[in-house]
Structures are given as structure tokens and as C-alpha cells.
Amino acid sequence: MDSIGFDLVAFAFSTIRVMTPLLFASMACMIFTKGGIDSIATEGIMLMCALAGAVGAWMFKSAFGGLMFGMCIGVFLSFTFGYVTLTLKANPVLAGIALNILAGGLTIFIIYYLTGEKGSTQSLATPVLPSLDIPVLKDMPTLGRIISGHNVLTYVSLIMVAALHFFLYKTRSGLRMRTVGENPHAAESVGLSVMKYKYLSLFIAGSLAGLGGAFMSLGYVSFFSKNMIAGRGFIGMAAESMGQGVPGGVLLATLLFSVADALSVRLQLMSMPPELMQLLPYLVTIVAIAVYSYHREKKKERRQQTD
Amino acid sequence: MANEILRMKDITKIYPNGVMANKNVSFTVEEGEIHALMGENGAGKSTLMKILFGIESYDEGEIFFDGKKLDHAGSAEAIKSGIGMVHQHFMLVDSLRVYENIILGMEPTRGPMIDAETAIGQVRELGEKYNLRVNPLARVEDISVGLKQKVELLKVLMRGARLLILDEPTAVLTPQETEELFEQLLLLRKNNHTIIFISHKIREVMQICDKVTIMRAGRSEGTIGVEGTTAEDISRLMVGRDVILKQDKKPAEFGAPKLRVRNLNYINRFGKAMLKNVNFDLRSGQIMGVAGVEGNGQNDLAETIFGLTRGATGEVLADGKNILGKSIREIRDLGISYIPEDRITLGVASDGSVWQNLIADRVDQPEMKSGAFLSSKKIEALSDELIREFNIRCKSRNQSVGMLSGGNMQKVVVAREFSADPEILIANQPTRGIDVGANEFIWKKIVEKRDAGKAILLVSADLNEVLELSDSILVMCEGELVAYFEDAKKVTEEELGLYMLGLKKQEALGHGQ
After folding, report:
1. How close does chain A come to B274, measured CA to CA in Å?
2. Is residue A14 one of the residues assigned to a domain?
3. Which residues of B touch A190 (CB under 8 A)?
4. Average pLDDT, chain B
């Protein structure tokens, strides 16, 4: 391979790197959806949490403190969204859009207030989360270079997929949450509290969105910059639907989007027009959703014919 | 078997909109019996059972179960005391497995995990005991309606229910599944469970029930033992009318047939045959009432003729042309109008204004346009004329239809459909749930159409409406036409009831009349 050639190992490494925030986003969307809650607000929640992460790390002088602060803000915003849509019965799409727009403006206002700049928090000294070398793996030739040396949250996100699978399909609360999300009447008919499990799903999804957001400013880069979520919350929604709402499927769908994301970064480095290349992940999202929906409809049609 | 398990005393329930669903209803059930609760739709049986199960509040009365007074604190208390309900619409989660649905809310656990093995074992064991065999690992979305019902029964039994309320359990079942259900119910009774069986099918009640309580118009008409009574007795108690309105009209003069229905068959999307070989002629100057207990195909008949269903076979001939499979636009263009059963979803666009709804069927007609554009002058003139003629009480033609009362909303539908000057009018429950004034007005309009030589098919669950308004009457039962009376005056409500409930059937109903 020549110097501008394609370094597959580096590409695989960066795919995993860009996958981390997307995976948190799609897992958050998955838990929202499982609890029967619209996941449209994920984008805005993540953006606010990205700022909360940076500001928290600066305030507490600790990246871990920032992470916790980001998670708390995530849960707080998620509960707020839940209160407005479930208790006050506001239209979830409108409430979600409102939250997303609010996040866009409010984050800029806050960084301007704190730093006097409107673009980013680079002037605040913020510690970042450490990267992790995995003892045995890191010494393996190719695999070590791909899998080892990522941010600690990257590993957390992958463990989270397995943990959520266990939670949803093996535990009592998981079963009840899925019931409440799919058929609240069935839950009521056996005397379960629908609201309790809806708020459980808000809590988990809010924490995940918080982790994903905080990762952006504490690991992905070391500061908050405006609009830094850049549609990842929405890509998470797409991955959730393409992965059919099961953790493994959502992981695979997220991986696909991450490949597109990493590819767009790579191709920009290879002197392709960056404006065009930045389109790539979004283009893949649209195409993937279209293909997926087409197949789902076909399948439904076929099923109806055999009935 | 003299051990009284349930006593509901003087239950009165008035809905916030003023409808009295139950009036001083008393209802007693003894342990170990299958007790039928019968009545037509809207008689108040479901309301009474929802009150018992704690999902509906009540205004007056007391409930004693097993000697203890039940406070009204939601279904959790009812479940805990040993009352279980199988709802008409199943309360199951489709994507979950059978055993997960059954153990929901009472999952056995081992550490942090659900103990699936124990759960599956419990479900199997219970299934063996009551002969309700369902594969615990199947997904609910993949199993038949009959099996889903077994899952519901298991769900209720798993919670230790001793009194089971079954809300029209056979409505969704095939005859074979019904037989199977009955065997299971008899087995449950043998195990000293008590069953309340809501139904309006006399034959089924006679077959498996010990006692029957009959409700009509929110009141109890009494409880009788099934042994020693006849289907006719039950029918007489069940079907009756309170004459509120009378309609004077000239004797009918029937003309040539306008609509011929031949060998009409329709199977709905759940695979149930809703129309079985239906044949009749509708003539000009005739109001043909279609009577039947709800859900016996009357609505499907009206919708199929107007092109709202897909996949029906046979012929529907309007002026000799088969309209089956044609679009609604084409059907309307042949001079057929339709007043739908559900005015809110099919009859009007609630957010639209009165004038928009009035011209909805004719926006593309030249009479509404000047040049390429809609003419607001023509539209306004027409709307105002219809509002006046049909006495629609609205602030202005710009008011949104959703703001109008039920009666006035229905008048908007009637005004639009009648002013299209149809040759054939299909009126599906034209006066359901509206005030007496609007009711009278709509009746008058229908009679005017008849006198002008139009043909009217009137589907109604209101027996009074069928008997007062119709010139001739068809009776449907389980998708079949079971009776035709050329002269509606010659039939009594008792007789109609026997046909509606499937106790009698005219044999010579092959090919029109």
C-alpha cells in the first residue's frame, strides 16, 4: 500500500472509535422504544449532556465527575420529556423537537456565558477519560492494534449491549418494561403500574444518552463544540429501527453506520471533497432505512397472503 | 350448590355524558355454576362486569364476593380476591412468548433472573390440569385466536381466580373452537370454579349454562334457571323495545328493483365468514330494514355494497351493472349514497369546517367550480342552503364539525348524502346516539326519499327504528339472511327476536323474493 493508500487497521480502529457515541445513542433509542416512548429527543438530550460532561469535568476537576454530571443531566432531561409527554400528555414529536431546538440554543448560550466564546469550550481546562490498553490483547499483532487502546467508554458501550440484552430478556423488570411498551392494557390487566416501568425506561435511556453525550466532550475530543452531536441521536433512531429493537441487531446496524462514518473521515483525508464526504453517513442512513422498510413491507405482504 | 359466592346489590352507573348504563341492577351468582349474562349490545352487561372487575366505577350499590364487601380499588383488588376476567379484546403482548404472558406480574425468579424453567413448568402443569394445552414457548403473534383465548384463561387461572368472567368468549371462535371451549368450561365447573358467561347467543347459553340473568336497557329482567325454560322465554325477555318515537308514513308503493344482491359472500381479514350467500332485491320506493344482533354481518353487508371492503364474491347489481370491486367514486357516480355507522371516523372530517364536509363528495364536480378553481360563491350558497334545509345548528358554515353535537354532526352527513340526490341510499345506523329531535328529523328525510321513489337500505341495531321506519325487513344471523318480511307491519318484535337470535329460520330464502 502506498502512502495515500487505505490503511485497513487504522480504518477498523477508527470505526470502533466513531461507533461509541452512536452505540450509546442507538441503545438509548432502543430502551425508549421498548418502553413505548418516542425516542426523538435523544439528539437534544445528548447535546446537552455533551456540554454537561465538559462543564462537569471542569467544575469537579475530574473526567469521571463530568461523566456523572452528564448522566444526571441525561436522566433529568429524559424525565422532563417523560413528564411532559406522559403526564401532561403533550405530543411527543413536538416536545422532542422543542427539546432538540432548545438544546441547540441553550448550549451555545451557556458556553458563551462561561467562556465568552460561541464555538467551543476549548479555553476551559477539562480532563478527559483515559484510554485503556487491554493486557494480553494489546500484544497481538493486528487485532491488538484494532481492539486495544480505545477510550474506556468504548468498552463500556460494548459491555452495555450485553447487559441490556440480559436486562431486557432475562429479568423481571425487563419483561415488564417490554410489556408496558408494547401493550399497556395487558400490563394493567395484571395489575402492573404502567407509569413505573415507563419511568424506568426513561431512567435507563436517559443515562445512556447522557453517557453518549458526555463521551463526545470527554473522550471523542477534549472539549464541547456547538452542535457536536451532529445527528447522532437521529442515526441512533435509524439504527434502532433497522436492528428491529433487539440489542444484537441494533449493534450490527450501528456498526454499519459507523463504517460509513469512519469512511467519510478516511476519504476526506484522501483529498476527496470533504463537503461531499461528510454526506456519506447520512446518505447511508437514508438508503439503509429505505431498503429495510422495503423488505419489511414485502415480508408483511407475504405474511398476509399466506394467512 | 347453594353457596352464594357473589352478590351485586342495586348497582347504578351513570356515565359522565348522562347515559345510564346500569339502573338498580342486582345480580347473584352461586358457587360452581356457569351463569349466563345475556342482553343485546348496549344492555349494560359489559358495564356491570367491568364494575365487578374494578375497572369501572359505580355510583350506587354494593358488591359482596365470598362474603366480603369489595371496596372499589381497581382490578388489583378483584384479582387478589379471586376474580378473573377474560376480555373480549385479548390483553396479550404479541411479541412475547406464551409463558411470559401468563406469568407476567408474578414471575418466579432465581437471583436477578426470571426462572424460565419453573415458569414453563407451572404453565404446563396448569394446562394439564385444566386441559388447556398451549405450547408455552410459542410466540403469541404466531398462534390462533382459539389458542390466544386459552392463554387468557391460563393467565386468569394462574392468578388463582375462582370466579371467571368471560366477555363474549365465543364471538371470535370457530364452531370447533367453541365446542372445545365449552368442554374446558365444564371441566372448570367440575373443579368448583364459578363462571359468568356473557353472551347473546341463546343456543350456547342453553347448552352449557345453569342459570341466566337477562339485561335490557341497563336493567336486570330477572334470573331464571336454564332447565325448565325455553329459548323462546329467554328471547322474549331479551328482545323488546321501548317505543319512544313513531313515524307516520303513506303506504309504500314498490317499483322496479334498483339493487340486486346475488350470492354475496365475504370473509373478513381474520378469516371469519361475515356474509354467507346473501340474496335480496331492493326496490324503488322501499325502505328495507336490516335487523340483527350486532356483529351478525349487517355492517359488513352495508360496507360491502358501498365498496368499503375488499375480497367479497358474488354480485351487487345497480341498474344491471355489477358494482362489486368498483371504487367508491364509481359507486357514488352511479347514484348511491352512504351514511356510515361511525360518523366520526368515516362520516366527517372533524377538523374540517361544516362547508368543507358538506361538499366533500362533490369538490371535483363542475357545479362547485368556476373555471379551474373552486367557486366560493357557489360553495357558500350551497352550504348555507343545506344548513337551512337540514336545520344544522352551527355558529356558521366555517365552524369545525368536531365542535358540533352528535345530532348536528350526523345532520351534516345526512345533508351531504341526501343532497347528492341518490337513487339508492344505504343508511347504516343513521340515528345512533343522537338526540330525539335530530332522530325524528332524519327519519322524516328518509321517508321523503322513499316517497320520491328512491330505494333505501336501512341497517339498524335499534329495533324500534327497524319496525317503525321500514316497509320490509330482512333479518341477519351469523352472516346469513334468515328471514324476509315483505310487509314490516305484519311482524312482531317477539317474532323478529326469534330470527335474530337464530332460533328460527325461513327456509325458502334462496333467490331474492
Report:
1. 17
2. no
3. 79, 91, 104-106, 155, 159
4. 89
Please name the member of B96, B155, B159 whose beta carbon is closest to the beta carbon of A179. Answer: B96
The whole-model pTM stands at 0.75
> What is the distance in angstroms between the Cα of A74 and the nearest Cα belonging to chain B?
26
pLDDT of A103-136, one tens digit each?
A: 999 999 999 999 998 889 888 888 889 888 888 8
CA distances from B212 to B229, B266, B405 (A): 10, 33, 38
Indicate yes or no: CB of A183 within 8 angstroms of CB of B105: no
pLDDT digits (tens, 9 = 90+) for A185-200: 999 888 888 999 999 9
Per residue in A223-261, pLDDT (tens digit) is 999 999 999 999 999 999 889 899 999 999 999 999 988
Q: Which of A125, A166, A137, A165 is nearest to A16 (CA)?
A: A137
Nearest Cα to A175, choosing from B118, B123, B103, B84?
Answer: B103
Nearest beta carbon to residue A172 from set B87, B91, B114: B114
3-class DSSP state of A120:
strand
Record: contact A191-B96, CB cut-off 8 A: no
Query: What per-residue confidence (pLDDT) applies to A222?
Result: 92
Instruction: Give the model's pLDDT for residue B154.
Output: 95
Percent of chain A topping pLDDT 70: 95
On whether the CB atoms of residues B263 and B481 are closer than 8 A, the answer is no
Chain A interface disruption, residue of B91, B110, B142, B158, most A CBs within 10 A: B91
Q: Cβ contacts (< 8 Å) between A172 and chain B: which residues?
A: 107, 109, 114
Residues B73 and B92 in one domain: yes
Please indicate, yes or no, if residue B95 is contained in any of the structural domains. yes
B314 plus B434 within the same structural domain: yes
How many CB atoms are located within 10 Å of the residue A223 CB?
23
For helices A92-115 and A42-60, the axis angle rounded to 10 degrees is 30
Nearest CA in chain A to B158: A190
Which range marks the domain in which residue A49 is found? 20-129+166-228
Find, in chain A, the residue whose alpha carbon is nearest to that of B113: A171
Q: Are strands B369-370 and B373-374 parallel, antiparallel or unpaired?
A: antiparallel
Shortest CB distance from A191 goes to which of B75, B87, B107?
B75
- If asked whether residues B261 and B279 sit together in one domain, one would say yes
**End-of-domain residue from the set B368, B386, B421:** B421
Residues of B in contact with A185 (CB under 8 A): 91
* CB environment B136-172: b (16+ within 10 A), e (fewer): beeebeebeebbbbbbbbbbbbbbebbbbbbbbbbeb
Report CB contact under 8 Å: B76, A183: no
Nearest CA in chain A to B92: A186
Interface predicted TM-score (ipTM) over 0.85:
no
Q: Give every CB contact of residue B332 below 8 A, 6+ residues apart in sequence.
A: B361, B420
| Per-window interface: A 154-183 vs B, CB < 8 A | 170-172, 175-176, 178-179, 182-183
Q: How far apart are CA B296 and CA B21, in angstroms?
A: 23
One-letter amino acid at A174 equals: G
Record: contact B104-A191, CB cut-off 8 A: no
According to DSSP, the β-strands at B480-485 and B472-477 are antiparallel
Q: Is A198 on the interface with B (CB under 8 A)?
A: no
Mean pLDDT over B44-60 rounds to 89
- Provide φ and ψ at A296, rounded to 5°: -65, -40
How far is Cα A255 from Cα A274, in angstroms, rounded to an integer?
22
